[in-house]
Amino acid sequence: MSDRYQDLAHNPVGKFLVKNLGLPNPPYLDRYTGGALVKGTVLTGSATKTSAVAKEITAALKAQGIEATGVRADGKKYKGLVFDASGIDSAAGLVALQEFFTPVLRQLAPSGRIVVVGSLPAEAASEGAALAQRGLEGFTRSLGKEVGGGSTVNLVYVAKGAEKALASTLGFLLSPKSAYVSGQVIRIGTSELKKADKVADLTKPLAGKVALVTGASRGLGAAEIEALARDGATVIGLDVPPLEDDLKAVTEKLGGGYIVGDITAADAPKTIADYIEQHHGGVDIIVHNAGITRDKRLKNMKAENFALVVDISVGAPQRITDELLERGLINKGGRIVGISSIAGIAGNNGQTNYGAAKAGVIGWITALSERVAGQGITANAIAPGFIETDMVKTIPLGIREAGRRMNSMSQGGQPVDVAEAIAWYASPGSQAVTGNVVRVCGQSLLGA
Predict the structure, then answer these.
(1) Which backbone phi and psi does 257 adopt, to 5 degrees?
(2) Residues of CATH 3.40.50.720 domain(s) within the chain?
């Protein structure tokens, strides 16, 4: 769905009004269209001179083909800034953030990327280190609300022993693939999964993998299946019978297969597992994207609508995943992705059922990530904010505009923004990324 206000804000009259009236100024975001991950130079820095994390950051950028330098040049524009703050171990030491960023922020290019890398507060060797590392969250989220021009700011906590697993996450956060991801905290290697699998081909990281996406016929699901196929996966789409024609068109275009059915049906887990076993022998990536809304305030809510929303979003995904796990059909190195929502974090008026369902996704994924780590499988969640799908056309204009403007980007996201985050989770290089909930919301003003 087009954003007419965004177009208005960029014509001569609109620019004048936006500037003089202090109106929201939604930039045109830089999104990935192929080629190099980062088209420009990344400046790196570190709070400590002898840092193992800093060395791994340099190696990670090189592995992704990203041009980087540790020496600032006056007048040069940088597409990204990466600062190693993992060695900060006191309140006073936090000033290192200011000393690095203040001189160079004006040199950040439009749609620039800022990434701060820290160590897990839970692993801190002292109270000073714990407070300093937790302080990075407030710093990055605040800076994310200061930078403009479509730029983003994110924090990556890396566990001890997981330093070599940074490449995939840094590549995602520094590239246009993360256009609508800002103010997020990502944790690497918090479980026994602390290494990254080898990525044989950066242009086709999912070659040889099989991916299943539910709710795949349109909107978010169609974008997700297209991104996974672009990265080399063999895709399987699933959706309900009324959407079979759309589902068939999407999957056949990508050379994939499809399953028609209702995921809440009693036999759905077996039907899906049988299809995967018969056609592929196993699956590597599962994206539980299917979801519906049945909005009413709780005093007017029907029990069947409450139950249906919860079952589609989290009940059925849990049953399907358990069936696949019990039959050994999720391959080692597999990826399970649950689609939550900002509604499950901040809540929404008239969406007690949806909020409960999407918060439930987070609880399920958190527990599941621990259960499957021993099998070399990761489980993560995406929590989209206001995304421009056909669904938003039904939202009243005032609420729609509020949803678009109440984030650091002053606009809604696109389905591809959610799809790119899923492709990052799915990458072999993201093996140490598990148990995370990343909001794709443009750093919404709502929620944590």
Answers:
(1) -115, 175
(2) 31-188, 210-440
Work out the number of other CB atoms within 10 angstroms of the CB of residue 95: 12
**Residues 36-75: tens digit of each pLDDT:** 999 999 999 999 988 889 999 999 999 999 999 999 999 9
pTM of the model: 0.96
Could you tell me the CA-to-CA distances from 156 to 53, 137, 153, 240 in Å, in that order?
Answer: 12, 10, 10, 38
Catalytic hit among 5, 32, 258, 354: 354
Question: Do the beta carbons of residue 44 and residue 60 sit within 8 Å?
Answer: no
Q: Is 354 a catalytic residue?
A: yes
Q: Strand, helix or coil at 174? A: helix
CATH number for domain 31-188, candidates 2.60.120.10, 3.40.50.10840, 3.40.50.720, 3.30.450.20: 3.40.50.720
CA distance 179 to 155: 15
User: 195: helix, coil or strand?
Assistant: coil
Phi, psi of 20 (to 5 degrees): -85, -20
- How far apart (Å, rounded) are the C-alpha atoms in residues 55 and 164? 10
The amino acid occupying position 438 is: V
Topology of the domain comprising 210-440: Rossmann fold (3.40.50)
In DSSP terms, 257 is beta-bridged to 236
Beta-bridge partners for 381? 338, 437
C-beta of residue 166 within 8 angstroms of C-beta of residue 117: yes
DSSP secondary structure letter of residue 439 = E
Whether 236 contacts 286, CB under 8 Å: no
